[in-house]
Amino acid sequence: MASGRQRVVVLGGGFGGVFTAKHLKRVADGKLEILLISRHNFFVFQPLLPEIAGGSINPGDGVVPLRRFLPGIEVMVAEVREIDLRSKNVQVSLGSDTGLEPVPFDQLVIALGQVVDLSRTPGLADRAFVIKDVMDAFQIRNHVLGCLERADAASDPARKQALLTFVVIGGGFTGVETVGEVHELIRKSLRYYPRIRRGDVRTILIQHGPRILPELPERLATYAADNLRRRGIEIQLETGVKAATAFAVETDRGPPIEAETIIAAIGNAPSPLLKSLPLELEHGRIGVDRAMRVRGHDDVWALGDAAHIPLGDPAAGDVAYAPPIAQFAVREAKVLARNVVATLEGREPEAFAYHSLGTLAALGGRRGVAELLGLRISGFPAWVAWRLFYLGLLPGLATRLRVAADWLLDLLVGRSIAELRGTRPSSQPMRFSAGDRVIEPGVAPGGTYVVTSGAFDIRANAPNPSAADGGQDPVSPDRTVGPGDVFGLPLSGEGTSASEWVCASAPSTAYFIDKDDLHRLQMVFALIKRRADDGGSDNSA
Amino acid sequence: MASGRQRVVVLGGGFGGVFTAKHLKRVADGKLEILLISRHNFFVFQPLLPEIAGGSINPGDGVVPLRRFLPGIEVMVAEVREIDLRSKNVQVSLGSDTGLEPVPFDQLVIALGQVVDLSRTPGLADRAFVIKDVMDAFQIRNHVLGCLERADAASDPARKQALLTFVVIGGGFTGVETVGEVHELIRKSLRYYPRIRRGDVRTILIQHGPRILPELPERLATYAADNLRRRGIEIQLETGVKAATAFAVETDRGPPIEAETIIAAIGNAPSPLLKSLPLELEHGRIGVDRAMRVRGHDDVWALGDAAHIPLGDPAAGDVAYAPPIAQFAVREAKVLARNVVATLEGREPEAFAYHSLGTLAALGGRRGVAELLGLRISGFPAWVAWRLFYLGLLPGLATRLRVAADWLLDLLVGRSIAELRGTRPSSQPMRFSAGDRVIEPGVAPGGTYVVTSGAFDIRANAPNPSAADGGQDPVSPDRTVGPGDVFGLPLSGEGTSASEWVCASAPSTAYFIDKDDLHRLQMVFALIKRRADDGGSDNSA
Fold it and tell me: How do strand B375-379 and strand B367-372 relate by DSSP bridges?
């Protein structure tokens, strides 16, 4: 290894980063030292996530192990914490048990993609599943199957209906594909649940805009919407989500939708790291020139979802930019790799230019829509085109074979309904609307609620039914609890008894501590309380 | 459905329960109402768990969805909480958000299997992975791959060695198969980790008795031990485990073994539910007659690992009992189903009798040992026999095909090294030995430690190296903290600074709160502290 070699550090293990590293290795012919830094040791093939959520692909089969796909390239599994463009250093964290480690670079490629940010909608981040990562998608699959199990056993009709209501927010590619696949998983599983009738299940797609799939021509989007509706999926257009509570999705149209399952396919936002950089952001993405070089930094490059790449000359009034999709990232990577080597050799970099091969969406149920090379197709042929297209785009023979085997088994023997739960306890912040019944006698609370805002009424007798719709109960409660108070299972002696009702009397929040967590933390709580009682005295020997 | 039908409730979704339900349906010919109650909606094929831990089978592929395998049989996913033999009622919990529900029965079949109880060895329950459930096995696979990633990036040699030390406790079938498969996973993955040499990895099997695989003839066990040793696995015989600390396994021989990975394949114990029953337990199992009827209860039956089934006449001095293995449970189920129907029809039940077809163990690396129909085979033929035997025993065509496809892909393209981490935070109780360095400057602590017993020294200067071996540091510490004190990341303002060292000065325990959990719980802690400061006054409105 010649010590004179330049070190290129690539940040991000998505399409942009992985293919940049791959092409750099090929183009540089040993003249560069290449290091890829990724959060995971695998590459997530995002277009397949809805199929993992729908259970037709095993979670481990929709990913590509980086070290295997990138022979000869150094791979580091770490979180990028800081980027210092001046000293040409990146600070990374290798895990919760070690400190930050500096990684120096000569050339830096930023391919950090985007993150999901649901903070603009109250309660959504706490309540919704996202579909960004492979384990997110796998969790959705297991949760959906768990809802079927619990609905089959449920005796209370309202509870059963909430368990059988599945809401997907966002009518773009991911939202449409996810609602289609989840609906398919449910449809194929229902015959094993004798107590659930098909009409009991509601799958709902909520879209803010006037139509779904705005990236596709209207005719195809209409076909897609018709197809989803015909299969029984409700589509609510021009509908905004105001909040998510412990029990429901609140929209700006109609009454709250009581649902156990909320999936958010919205909220793509720039990585918080980008905002910390002394760089000009354009629409939350890093501004680069047509060669994908970050303006004002000769040794820094950016591509993929994190970069705002002009497809023409912005100075000449050209307003076309590369869209944040896989196809483009893969092509950008190829050009960027050549550009890095060209500039190191004193040659001129080339401008990125690419015409999309087309766009495709799978709708589930062996149907799809596609615009390929100007051709618009829909139905079964588009679905086949979708599968072939992504099987071709999927990097690595092993992964391709695994996905093909999953699809074949799905056709031959159907998908599994095994609910593979992890052991994750469900402690989390929760939001309640006024009138929500949180605890009822006869139903053992799953843990302790610590009120963080608002107020809850506690009463020994059933609340007036009209109060459940947010109305005022004429009979005043036995007591009302507020922030800092505790109800449910007792914590430090405080809680509610098994015969009491608890209702939110105003829009309120509480931190729910699952009884398993509670058990584990009980000792810690007791110690902290004792210390506080002692006046925080120092126990030092 | 005739209301006069007897209702048979089967408790447990393992081999015994599932096959009893299946055979009952067949034998009863519609004359019985059959309900199976299981914790999961699938049946775990236990013999394949080591292969899931080794990554050659996908977690979802090694299980059989109950509803699919048991058409016409009612399935309820629930935890059994109470069994009342007098009122003929079982109380079950359907989830943390609902109360107990009564399930009446006419005939009860107890097939609750066994649980893992590691409480006899201090620290082991908190530190060790078990291999009882499919997600346990999947977690082991991911953890092992994560250790390779972190070891590849580690700069501290001692830390690297701990990350590369894998200890399996227990030399029975599960322990031997697990150590063999985990070793194989590591061996096949190493070529992707350029900074780990093969000699850096230690896989250790600890066995209490004088030899491994005591269930097999000595010659086969010797072959197995030789094979494992030749492949580089260390076997420590006649070694007891005294304790597991945050950093090490302490045995009754030699120095503590510093290891990041501890897998316990020991501790099979009766379900706590069995102890609560007014039944006579024999070696922790329910005493039954030769027809598998619980003594003194005409309508209660037991089989599988939960039952102590005589193979001869105990009164005549016969001391043979059915061993707790899959083969026997499957055959017991068949006889038990016939016996339930026979007694309902007024016929005599038959005595259970079965001669084992043999026993097999897979050693990993395409080697095995087997005693089949009196024939002793070892090596590659035994491994093939193992795979065919269990593929044949695996219920359901779909599962059989899935497992066969996984094995085929493993042969064709090798196993994946993708570390599929869940998002489970790692808050947990931890144990330390005297002298353990818990926090060092430059290494950011992963969270907050609340001391629960013992004492920790905090000092601004490095402790004397000899103190690391449990010796006394001649320089006294800056301060010492004890139960109720906090170190690491600050909690309520208390913690240690980034430049301080923390060492256990005696055998100690602490509850570690992961920084992600800490962040989520901070608000709750603050509220509780404030309330304690207010003297616990009632905030009621």
Answer: antiparallel
Q: What is the pLDDT of residue A70?
A: 95
pTM: 0.91
Number of Cβ within 10 Å of residue A413's Cβ equals 16
Nearest CA in chain A to B417: A65
Q: Domain spanning A124-266+358-413 has what CATH number?
A: 3.50.50.100
- What is the architecture of the domain spanning B428-533? Sandwich (2.60)
- Across the interface, do B427 and A520 touch by the CB < 8 Å criterion? yes
Quick check: B95 and A63 CB within 8 A?
no
Average pLDDT of span B63-80: 94
What is the interface pTM, i.e. ipTM, of the complex? 0.90
CATH architecture classification, B6-39+78-114+269-344:
3-Layer(bba) Sandwich (3.50)
Render A157-185 in DSSP notation, one character per residue.
HHHHHHHTEEEEE--SHHHHHHHHHHHHH
Residue B158 CB contacts under 8 Å (≥ 6 apart), including other chains: B258
Q: Residue A154 and residue B418: Cβ atoms within 8 Å?
A: no
CB contact under 8 A, B40 and A540: no
User: Any idea where the domains of chain A sit in the sequence?
Assistant: 6-39+78-116+269-344, 124-266+358-413, 428-533
Residue B537 pLDDT: 42
Residues of chain A in contact with residue B525, where contact means CB-CB under 8 angstroms, are: 528
Sequence-ordered list of residues with C-beta below 8 angstroms from that of B235, at least 6 positions apart, any chain: B171, B204, B205, B207, B212, B225, B228, B229
- Does the pLDDT of residue A155 top 70, yes or no? yes
Looking at residue A138, the DSSP 8-state letter turns out to be H
Q: Which of A398, A442, A485 sits opposite B413 (nearest CB)?
A: A398
List CB contacts (< 8 A) between A417 and chain B: 41, 65, 67-68
- Bridge partners for A453 per DSSP: A509
* C-beta atoms of A529 and B528 within 8 A: yes
Digit-coded pLDDT (tens) for A302-344: 999 999 999 988 788 888 999 988 889 999 999 999 999 999 9
Both tokens assigned to B97: 């958000």
Mean pLDDT of A278-302: 93
